[in-house]
Structures are given as C-alpha cells and as structure tokens.
Amino acid sequence: MRVAMIGTGYVGLVSGACFADFGHVVTCVDKDASKIERLHQNIMPIYEPGLDTLVEKNVKEERLFFTTDAKEAIADADAVFIAVGTPSRRGDGHADLSYVYAAAEEIAELIDGFTMIVTKSTVPVGTGDEVEDIIRKKRPDADFAVVSNPEFLREGAAIKDFKIPDRVVVGTDSERARELMRELYRPLFLNETPILFTARRTSELIKYAANAFLAVKITFINEMADLCEAVGANVQEVSRGIGLDGRIGNKFLNAGPGYGGSCFPKDTLALTKTANDNNTPVRIVDTVVEVNAARKKAMAGKVIQAMGGDVSGKTIGVLGLAFKQNTDDMRDAPSLDIIPALIEAGATIKAFDPEAMEEAAKLMDGLNYVENAYEAVDGADAMVILTEWDQFRALDLERIKASLSSDIVVDLRNIYSPEDMAKRGFEYSSIGRP
Ligand code: UDX
Q: Which residue did the predictor score with more confidence, 387 or 88?
C-alpha cells in the first residue's frame, strides 16, 4: 500500500519507517525543512535505538521518502496518517490539537478518490469526529473515512513495540477502512497479533486508559516504596510478590523517582480534563497526577537528607538526566525538578547523561555537564543516580569509592543492592528498601 505519514517525530518517523519495513511505500511529511534535509542525510531528529539503520535501509530500498510537500505525499496515498504532536496546552492541560486540525485542513484540500485518514497521534475522545467535520465542511463531495489507530510505543523500545505489539487497536465504523487497515497491518498477522476493531471514540479512549492505568501502577508502587521505607520492608520484593499474580502482572512495578516522559504526564492530564468536561471525574487519575508531581519534587529532599540535611557548598555527581534510559527525551524528567532544587539548596552539580545532555542544556543551566560518570563523581560529596542507563549498572565501584570525597550514594533507580553497597563501605540509600 501507499502511505502518507504527516509528522516525523517520535511517532511519525518510527511508524513510517516500520510501515516501510513491512513492505509498504511510505512518504513522511514535515513542515520543518531542516528536519527533512537532515533526514535526507540520514540524521535522525530523535535518539531511538536502531532507527537510523531502519530508515537508511528503507530509503535505500526506495520504500521510504521524506518531503515537505504534503500534496506530493497525499495525492496517491491509500492511507494518510496524522502523526503530529499533541502537546499539553499551556495553562489548562488540554491536548493542543492545532497541529491535528491544520493537518486535517491540508488533507481536505488534497483528497482525490477514496482516502482513509488515520489519527496515530494521541488525541482526546471525539477528535476523530472533529477531523471528519473539518474535512466534510471543506469537501462535502469527498469520499473518505477517518480512523483512530493509537500507538503504544515506549521511547527507547519503539521499533520493537511497533513490530511486535501486544495488539493493534483500530477505531472505525467503515468496513472499507477496516479492510484497508487489515491490509496495512497484514505483516503482523505472521505472529498472530490481535487486531481489535472498535468504534472510533472507544479506540481514542483505549489509548488514554492504557497510559493512565500504567501511570496508576507506577504511582501505586512508588507509594508502596515510601511505606516500605517507613516500616523496613523491601519494595522490590513487594513488587515481585504482587507481580507474580497474573491478575496484576510484573511490568511497570519498578519504584523510582516518579514518572516523566512525553506521554504519561500529558495523557493523564488530558484524560482528567476530558473526564471533568463530561462530569465523570477520574479521581484516581487526578490523585496520580498530584502524587507523581509531589514525588519528583520530594526526591531532592531525599538527596539532601542522605547528605546530612545540608548541601550548601557541597558538590553532587549526578548520573542520568533523561526521563528514563535509552532516550534523549527530557520532557517531565525527574531531573528537571531534582537538580534545580539541589542548586537552590546551595549544591554544585556535575551531571552526565549518555544521550540527553544536549536536550538538558536547553532546559537547565547552573550545572556542569561532564563527559562521563567518573568525571561527574570525581571529588564529589555524593553520587546520585537518576536514570537507569545500562552503563551505570556496572560502574567500577572501587574507583567510585576512591574518587568520591565521602561515601554517600543515592540510587533513585534501585540499580545496586543495599547489602553489597554496605559491604563496600558506602552510605547507600535507595527507593523503598532498608
Ligand atoms: C509510555 C507508554 O509505555 C507507551 O505505551 C506510550 O505509547 C507512551 O508512553 P514512554 O513514556 O516512552 O511510554 O516510557 P515508559 O517506558 O512507559 O516509562 C514512562 C515513565 O514511567 C518513565 O518515566 C519511567 O521511568 C517510568 N517507569 C516505568 C517507572 O517509574 N517504573 C516502571 O516500572 C516503568
């Protein structure tokens, strides 16, 4: 099939490259000419493991193209995907749909023959109806269907999540669109991926419900971690103990500094807005939003406490800045709360992150960005781990001990074990463990 993908961000570029790798012919469109120019040089706009290789291969095999000209892309497309950003709107937390509406207006101009328009971006319930109205108003004559097809891609694992998804969700009441979507995802039949066909609004809500539930799970185990610290229990064992129950499942039960990223914070907020607008408040999710925000702020206090209650004039070596490992994304990263609070309390920060320092430098100043973990720790009064990068999991702890000017280690990702760190003579604190 011929696919037009509007938007070449985390969702559009990964989805476009994967559809091309399935054998479809995909043209990715972006208004940002410099982004398209860099893509023509195989320079990726985002860090996503394996994406550059996937793009390069499919461009070479002439299944993947990039352009700023939507007309060229949409003209003979069987499916036009809207994969533009839907950030939280300043002030009220609603999803900003201006890019989605602009794409709908543009598509309306260009439809020729039956066209299936697919919203891949995360959009509030009812957006598909609005897209349909925009197009219908502009082109009463046009033959088209608007379909919801939300993505469930985790940053850092997006290609795998696209190619081996737990399920594909398709929201439409058009039989013709259902047939086309089956054709589009046919390569996934090979591993019997369930394709769930629902009404469009149901599909839109599934996306928010999934992310909100995962955020609830994480926040639940984070609160269990605080309780564990108070009663001397071990949250990793609690997590394992409940996760072995098939009804609970063992994923997304790792306690940490609080969730961040481009989705959970945005989607939980948007869901609570939609719920409040419909007089059916989702109080659990409201609480999760509040608890998570407070948790990220409280983490600086945990570091200060571990360092004796006062960090003024002290130096802290921080390992990790991104909101999680395997990404350069800093959106709503806990480091954005923790580091400014430590600087405010008088600490000097030396920070290292394998991928996110460029992004971080756009958002945070007043700290020193260094070349590697050992440089961050050298001469510091404490080492603090904020992101669970693999390369922080097997540090030369003898070398760390020798170069720290104290023995304090605060591990907000539970990478190391309290027993082992105590044996090595560290004053080690972590999340939810004695
Ligand atoms: C998430 C959803 O997983 C994905 O399906 C959706 O399409 C986009 O949002 P992402 O935000 O990339 O993906 O990252 P994810 O791996 O889900 O982690 C989200 C946040 O939760 C991160 O801050 C991570 O550190 C945190 N987390 C995750 C935990 O604190 N504990 C866990 O056990 C898992």
A: 387
In CATH, 2-197 is 3.40.50.720: yes
Q: What is the pLDDT of residue 344?
A: 98
Token match 């909101």: residue? Answer: 323
Closest protein CA for atom 16 of ligand 1: 154
Residue 298 CB-density burial (10 A; 0-12 exposed, 13-18 middle, 19+ buried): middle
Active site residues: 263
State the distance from the centre of ligand 1 to the C-alpha of 215, rounded, in angstroms.
8
Distance 405 CA to ligand 1 centre (A): 34
DSSP string covering 241-273: HHHTSTTT-STT----S---SSSHHHHHHHHHH
2-197 against 236-429: fold identical:
yes
Domain assignments of the chain as residue spans, ordered by start: 2-197, 236-429
Q: Which CATH number fits domain 236-429: 3.40.50.720, 3.40.1280.10, 1.20.58.1480, 3.40.50.9100?
A: 3.40.50.720
Ligand 1 in contact with 257 (CB < 6 A)? no
d(CA 375, CA 392): 13
pLDDT at position 226 over 80: yes
Task: Say yes or no: CB of residue 11 within 6 Å of ligand 1.
Answer: no
pTM for the predicted model, two decimal places: 0.95
Residues 152/181, Cβ–Cβ less than 8 Å: no
264 touches ligand 1 (CB under 6 Å):
yes
Whether 14 lines ligand 1, by a CB cut-off of 6 Å, is no
pLDDT the model gives residue 190: 64
For atom 17 of ligand 1, the residue with the nearest CA is 154
